[in-house]
Design brief:
Length: about 425
């Protein structure tokens, strides 16, 4: 699990189950794309990094061609282990392929390695004072300035949308003991190079080796996680680890078996078309067909807004694409709160079998939430802010799409 700059955890209100009550049947309609504005939850004020839509302009763009500068660095007291090319190949072309699959081809991630050797820093690794959770000032500011100065004349920083600093893996402790990898995103006060601020920079240390022999296959995913920050995605893990989201998003857990991003994140990044999102903003019952998230076609997200900053997200998760550890396929239901900061729990997976032990046998996959998805015949009921919501999975079509009924009502005494 990785950090982005300085995280300030915050408490998150969670929806509770409504009291049982008899209600008149609600009108049933087939979902239409309609206006998505009620479902585009606004970013919370004063947050370091928000789940809100749209993402602010200081982050790197996440659609079209994105040029990523990769610099492999070492230090006088910690010389490069292996070659710079070998370090680069720990992450590419795997990272580019991961983003191509996750974005359905909407992100063309192009890594560049203009310097083919270790870029030696002028000062010792120890002198920068780098530890887990280190703030940008003063150590990282000094390091970024030294990187820009050392690469000057060899790199035109104006050509790139983001920067990856792939540190020699023997600098700092093993990632299994302490994760140092970090991203400083939308950092407009960063040192400049070639007239542009180095505002979106990811640092990757060590190797994510859990001893299972899967390093070559899965160890690269620390970079999609870190680059998720430069695209504006917050951390989904908290001080308690992956308890909120488990293995359902690489911004929660990036060790172990392959995983993808939540549908809400794909919408936030611009990877879903207008007809791939259903917004259930009005009272009544709507019927939806959710196509498995890894497929490029079909509806990927149903969102039920509860307030200007909260709501329920529905998506179909099955094995395929970037997802390798789905042991119970079905409809994943999450609670999104754009008032909660990165690392504080802005998203919570609502478990179909709370208190259970899960179904996974994979290492480094949160077990309790591995069977969180709702299968045919299963129902979630909850509510908040005067809105009651019932989500019922009615079945699965021959083409693999899940049929879902969403009922939205005002609770007793609520307006609207």
């Amino acid at each position: 699990m990785l950090t982005v700059a300085v995280v300030a955890p915050a408490a998150m209100p969670r929806p509770g189950k409504p009291a049982a009550a008899k209600r008149a049947p609600a009108p049933v309609t087939t979902a239409r794309a309609g206006s998505l504005e009620p479902c585009s939850l606004a970013p919370g004020p004063g947050l370091q990094m928000s789940e809100g839509i749209p993402t602010s302009r200081g982050y790197s763009r996440s659609t079209g061609t994105v040029n990523a500068l990769n610099l492999m660095i070492d230090f006088p007291d910690v010389r490069g282990k292996g070659t710079a090319r070998e370090r680069f190949e720990e992450f590419f072309p795997q990272t580019s392929r991961w983003f191509a699959r996750s974005s359905y081809g909407r992100l063309d991630y192009r890594p560049a390695m203009p310097i083919d050797h270790w870029l030696r820093m002028p000062h010792s690794f120890r002198s920068y004072g780098i530890k887990r959770g280190s703030p940008f000032e003063p150590g990282y500011r000094k390091l970024v300035a030294d990187i820009a100065k050392t690469a000057d004349g060899k790199v035109d920083f104006r050509r790139y949308d983001l920067v990856n600093i792939l540190v020699t893996p023997n600098a700092g402790p093993p990632a299994a003991h302490a994760v140092l990898s970090v991203t400083y995103a939308d950092n407009q006060r960063a040192p400049t190079a070639d007239g542009v601020p180095l505002a979106n920079v990811s640092f990757v240390y060590s190797r994510q080796d859990d001893g299972s022999g899967s390093l070559r296959k899965t160890g690269f995913r620390v970079l999609p996680h870190e680059n998720g920050h430069v695209f504006g995605l917050p951390d989904l893990y908290t001080r308690g680890g992956g308890d909120n989201v488990g293995h359902w998003d690489v911004m929660s857990e990036d060790w172990g078996a392959g995983n993808d991003l939540l549908a809400w994140h794909k919408w936030k990044l611009g990877w879903l078309g207008i007809r791939q999102v259903d917004c259930a903003a009005h009272p009544g019952t709507t019927v939806h067909a959710l196509s498995p998230l890894h497929r490029p076609e079909g509806t990927k997200l149903v969102f039920v807004p509860v307030s200007d900053s909260t709501g329920y997200a529905l998506e179909a998760r099955t094995g395929g694409g970037n997802d390798e550890a789905v042991c119970k396929p079905g409809v994943l239901v999450t609670w999104v709160d754009t008032r909660v900061d990165s690392g504080g729990g802005p998203v919570t997976v609502l478990d179909s079998s709370p208190g259970g032990h899960g179904c996974t046998q994979e290492r480094n996959v949160h077990p309790g939430l591995s069977d969180a998805a709702f299968g045919p015949g299963e129902t979630y009921e909850g509510g908040a802010d005067g809105v009651r919501v019932r989500i019922h999975v009615t079945g699965r079509d021959a083409d693999g799409a899940y049929r879902v009924e969403v009922t939205r009502r005002a609770s007793a005494g609520a307006r609207g």
